[in-house]
Structure formats: C-alpha cells, structure tokens
Amino acid sequence: MKKQSNFSLLLGAAFLMATSAIGPGFLTQTTHFTQVLAASFGFVILMSVLIDIGAQLNIWRIIAVAEKPAQDIANAVLPGLGYFISILIVLGGLAFNIGNIGGAGLGTNVMFGMSSQTGAILSGIVAIGIFLVKEAGKVMDRFAQVMGFVMIALTVYVMVSAQPPFAEAVIKTVMPDTIDYLAIVTLVGGTVGGYITFAGGHRLLEAGIKGQAALPQVTKSSISAIGIASIMRIFLFLAALGIVAQGLALDPANPPASVFKHAAGNAGYKMFGVIMWAAAVTSVVGAAYTSVSFIRTFNPMIEKYHKWFIVGFIAVSTFLFAVIGEPVKILILVGSLNGLILPVALGVMLIAAHKKKIVGDYKHPIWLTIFGILIVIAMAIMGGYSLINGIPKLFE
User: Fold this and answer.
1) Residue 195 DSSP symbol
2) Number of folded domains that form the chain
3) Top-confidence residue, 369 or 257
4) So which domain of life are we looking at (predicted)?
5) Distance CA 358, CA 368 (A)
6) What is d(CA 178, CA 237) in angstroms, rounded to the nearest whole number?
C-alpha cells in the first residue's frame, strides 16, 4: 500500500510540475515559434529539454537532501537571499496567474460561448474549490494527472489530423536552418523558469519524500515531469507544423486555436477550448501552490493558514484579471525574465549542494554539478542577449 501511495505522490508531483508549465503561454509560444522557425523549431525543443532536465535534476535532488524548501536553502547560503528569490517567484507567479485566469476564460468562451470574464471567474472558483477540500494535496495531484492526460490525448488526435512532415521535423531537429536564442530562453523559462521547476520539488517535500534514501524516486519523478511537458510540446509542435507546411494561415490573435480548427474543423476548435481551459486551470493551481510554498516557512501564521493564502492568491489573480484584463506585454516580459531567474536559483542550489551544513554528508555527483554550471552560464548569456535584443521590441 505504501509503495502504491508513493507512486501516486511521485506521479502527482511530476504532473503538478508539467501542468504548471503547460499553460496558455506554453500553447501560444509553441505555435508562434513553429510558425516562425518551421521544422527548425525541433532543435529549439531539443536544446530546451536537455537544459530542463539538467536544471530540474539538480534542483529537486538538492531540495530532497537538504530537506528544506528552496527559500530556506537560499537563506542558508546567504542570509536574505531566500527572501529576494521568494519576492521574484511570488511576483512572477502572480503575473502569470492573471494570464492563466485569462486563458481559462478564453477556454470557457470557446467551449460554451460565455464571456471570457465570466468564464475566468468561474474557473477561479473551481481552482479555489480544489484547496477547500479536506485532502487538498491529493485532489490537486489527481486533478493535474487527469487534465494532463486529457490535454495530451486531444493534442495527439489533432496532430494526426494535421499530417505533419515527420521526416523533415527529425532532420531539422539535429540540423536546423537557424538557431533562435530567444526561443530557447523563452521555452526554458516557460518550462523550468520562475516558480515552475520548484512546484514538484516542494510537493514531494511536503509529502515527506525526502532525504538521500528517496533520491532514486525524486530523480525518476523529476525526469518524468520534464518528459510529460516535453511530450505535450512535441505533439503541439508537430500539429502546428502540419498546418504551417500546408501553407495555411494562423490567426495572429490566437495561433493555437487556428491550428486545431484547421486540423479538425469546429470539433477541433472545441477541443482547443478544453485544452486551453485544462492548461490554464492546472497552471493556476500550480502557480498558487508553489508561490505560497515560497513564503510559508517565513512566518508560523502563514504556515498554519497556508491553504487560505493559496485561496487568497487565486482570488486576487481572478479579481485583477476581471478588473484590468490581461496585460499581454507584461506577461511576455515576465515570461522572458523567468528564464533569467533560473540561472540565479540554480546557481544558489549548486552552491548549497557543496555546503556540509546544508546537505550533510551527501556528495552531489560531479557530472550534475558541471551540467548545472554549464546551464547557469548558458542561460545567463542567452537570457542577457534576449533581454538586450528581444524584450525592448515588445515596447516599441
């Protein structure tokens, strides 16, 4: 029974992280970059998956062996650093959640024809309901799993309908026509940037899966999480590539919706509504849970009433969307900045992995340390390049 329970927790943590990554921005970014780069976008996905695995393996293992959440580890490395990272994570999580709530509203609009604002408010209530039940953690895990399977199954159907050029996609994945650094940073930021990579790590910690003995389970769960998000990314890329290769135009106002509509008609459009809603609400749940997990150890009152802080986080996000709508440029900016949070957070974790007062007698694998350092350097350089060259264009 214990083994079955652990498997469920590990799968729940993997899906929590993956569905936190698969939000409205994930769907739009994947479709947009496929339209711009065509089959060469496969190379961007490949590079981002390798970076995602290296970053997440390091972070989840270090959280497990330190038996502390990331903010406490950061404070142990340098007093005050944990507070600084928490502020970045919470503000980024709140900004993203406004967009996620907006995405949920768009999904209900496509499915039922109701206004986006009404749909957003109802979706916020659904997300809040998950945390009001007695065993919120189990409900959250199961919700993420079910919605994850639904999103992947529907996307596979649309991908097959789109008839993508598989051979070209494989060739360009290893021999691309062009390399887009902004696309790599954006994808990594959207998969393991900001709060996202910590979602599953903190969930396992809360569930008691920690310590050196749990490392094989933690490793399996962390790789599974990247695998789930990457499978969804690849299927969506192939679906979009099939449409682009046919020379069909995508609606710039909603690129992913037009992919589904071109591939499977009105039924495909309704499927997109289901996927958008599922992606958005699971991201709302993941962002709220993880953002609050970054502040709950700072004060006994927050720890005691953390469930109500999560509810409040979702309520504030929903209220802000209902009042001001979706601040598109700010959300894109925060998405890019998420890629810059990663080298800071991962760098701190790598320092912690070699401090005896934090990890005890644990010896972090040399290859993982080197892999992590290379990711920190590469993401800092590419993130800086994108900040200087890509982001200013948003505000021209």
Assistant:
1) T
2) 1
3) 369
4) Bacteria
5) 18
6) 17
Structure tokens at 78: 């340098």
192: which 2 tokens? 């393991």
Q: Cβ distance 263 to 155 under 8 Å?
A: no
Q: Which of 162, 159, 19 is nearest to 103 (CA)?
A: 19
pLDDT of the residue at 170:
95
Domain housing 345: 2-395
The stretch 270-274 carries a mean pLDDT of 91
Q: What is the pLDDT of residues 321-331, one digit of tens each?
A: 888 765 455 55
Location of structure tokens 């393991």: 192
* Token pair for 121: 């408010």
Phi and psi at 354, nearest 5°, equal -115, 20
Q: How far are the Cα atoms of 19, 163, 290 from residue 286, in angstroms, in the given order? A: 8, 33, 6
Reported as a single tens digit per residue, the pLDDT across 122-136 is 999 999 998 888 787
Q: Residue 93 in contact with residue 288, Cβ under 8 Å?
A: yes
C-alpha angle 208-95-311 in degrees, rounded to nearest 5: 50
Read out DSSP for 289-348? HHHHHTTTTS-HHHHHTHHHHHHHHHHHHHHHHHHH---HHHHHHHHHHHHHHHHHHHHH
- Give the DSSP letter of residue 213: G
Is pLDDT above 90 for 58?
A: yes
Classify each residue of 153-177 as buried b or exposed e, where b means 16 or more C-beta atoms within 10 Å of its C-beta. Answer: ebbbbbbebbebbeeebeebbeebe
Picking from 239, 254, 262, 279, the residue whose alpha carbon sits closest to that of residue 151 is: 279
- What's 122's DSSP letter? H
Best CA proximity match to 186, nearest among 326, 317, 32: 32
What type of residue sits at position 43?
F
Cα 379 to Cα 88: distance, rounded to the nearest angstrom: 17
- 3 state DSSP class of 259: helix
Mean pLDDT confidence for 146-162: 90
CATH of the domain at 40: 1.20.1740.10
**Using an 8 Å Cβ cutoff, are 217 and 34 in contact?**
no
H or E segment to which residue 101 belongs: helix 81-112
Kindly tell me the sign of the dihedral angle through the C-alpha atoms of 239, 243, 246, 247.
negative
